């Protein structure tokens, strides 16, 4: 298990968050490409809809990160009634630290962007599970099942 890279980013309300704020808790840290795009909306809404099941596990926080800014996150969260934290990483330093800034292509154009990855971070701050290039539709349910196993191990 490797130590999760530290971060200090603002959420959709302008409040600062750091990795140490989550010490003693499980953290689902997920990286997504862009606010209010189809796949990202499906993924965010699935975490929203599974919120009560996640809360039933106790001691778990879900945090989404993209390179969009605070205002974009605020609009996205408000529009879809998101009930968890979104962190703005416009300089993509944290996205890069987690190995999620990758070459991508769309309609024949190549560019660097955020890969849809998720990391489960244990209460001691180590990465215990990684999901690379996830399917946004059923991802929250997979995370819940894995958390149940990890938390009882």
Describe the structure.
The protein is an alpha+beta fold and 153 residues long. The protein has a single domain (2-152), classed as Glutaredoxin, CATH 3.40.30.10. Helix content is 31%, strand content 33%. It is built from five helices and ten strands. The chain has helices at 38-49, 51-57, 70-79, 93-97, 139-152; strands spanning 2-3, 8-11, 16-18, 26-31, 60-66, 85-88, 101-106, 109-114, 117-121, 126-132. An eight-stranded mixed beta sheet has the order 1-10-9-4-5-6-2-3, with helices on one face. Strands 7-8 form a two-stranded antiparallel ribbon. 33% of the residues are buried. The model has no long low-confidence stretch (mean pLDDT 94).
Supply the key terms.
153 residues; alpha+beta; Glutaredoxin; eight-stranded mixed beta sheet; two-stranded antiparallel ribbon; 10 strands; 31% helix
Biggest sheet strand line-up = 1-10-9-4-5-6-2-3
Biggest sheet descriptor: 8 strands, mixed
Radius of gyration: 14 Å
CATH superfamily: Glutaredoxin
The chain-level structural class is alpha+beta
Q: State the end-to-end distance.
A: 15 Å
Helix and strand run: EEEEHHEHEHEEEEH
Kindly provide the name of the CATH class: Alpha Beta
Strand content: 25-35%
| Residue windows where pLDDT falls under 50 for at least 5 positions | none
- Number of H- or I-type helical stretches: 5
Task: Classify the fold: give the CATH topology.
Answer: Glutaredoxin
How many strands appear in the DSSP assignment? Answer: 10
């Amino acid at each position: 298990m490797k130590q999760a890279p530290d971060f200090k980013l603002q959420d959709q309300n302008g409040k600062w968050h750091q990795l140490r704020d989550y010490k003693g808790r499980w953290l689902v840290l997920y990286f997504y490409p862009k606010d209010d795009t189809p796949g990202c909306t499906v993924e965010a809404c699935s975490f929203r809809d599974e919120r009560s099941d996640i809360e039933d596990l106790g001691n778990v926080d879900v945090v989404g990160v993209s390179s969009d800014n605070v205002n974009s996150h605020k609009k996205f969260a408000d529009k879809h009634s998101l009930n968890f934290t979104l962190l703005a990483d416009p300089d993509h330093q944290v996205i890069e630290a987690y190995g999620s800034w990758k070459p991508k292509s769309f309609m024949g154009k190549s560019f660097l962007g955020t890969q849809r990855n998720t990391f489960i971070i244990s209460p001691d701050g180590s990465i215990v599970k990684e999901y690379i290039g996830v399917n946004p539709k059923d991802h929250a349910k997979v995370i819940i099942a894995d958390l149940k196993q990890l938390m009882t191990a």
